[in-house]
Amino acid sequence: METRFDIVLRYIMLPCDVKGVIKNYCCDNLGYTGEALTIIRDESNKGRGKKLRTLVEAIHFKKMGVKPEWMKATYHEGLLYPCGAYLSVWGEIRTIEDFYMRGILSMEQVKCIYEEMYVNLSLGMKCEIRMILRRICGDEEGWWNSGVYGYG
Questions:
Q1: Residue 126, class by beta-carbon neighbours within 10 Å (0-12 exposed, 13-18 middle, 19+ buried)?
Q2: Which of 19-23, 102-106, 147-151 has the highest mean pLDDT?
Q3: Cα–Cα distance between 35 and 119 in angstroms, integer?
Q4: What is the pLDDT of residue 152?
Q5: Phi and psi at residue 74, in whole multiples of 5°?
Q6: CA-based, 20 to 30 A from 150: which of 6, 27, 28, 99?
Q7: Do 104 and 59 form a contact (C-beta atoms < 8 A)?
Q8: What does the pLDDT average to over 125-129?
Q9: Which of 138, 78, 76 is nearest to 130 (CA)?
Q10: Please, are residues 118 and 128 in contact by the beta-carbon 8 Å criterion?
């Protein structure tokens, strides 16, 4: 499959060795252009917050001494019993903060998890997340007051 870059390079009237030098300059060692690398990076980061949340829950289960099998929902007599490590969203938010304070999670991972959670939370939990992030980061460039966490 030819990329747009290869098609454009094919129609430029240059010697093959010059085209090779141009291609090597504009592409990485695997042949991807900057545009393709951006798309690949964006696609690979999709769902990262959800994966990190699952990892945090598994670590929390291990610290509690509970088998990870309990993370799965179970059916008993036709009823679904959802399971999880947390009694509420507040417990999950506090566990994530605790893992950051202990050095288990980085600031970038905490932000990624909170961004993924933030969309489906009540106003009270959103305020709690903003308060935690202010406490952790301070007023670092006001990032918590814009974008996902802001009011506008």
A1: middle
A2: 102-106
A3: 29
A4: 40
A5: -125, 155
A6: 99
A7: yes
A8: 85
A9: 138
A10: no
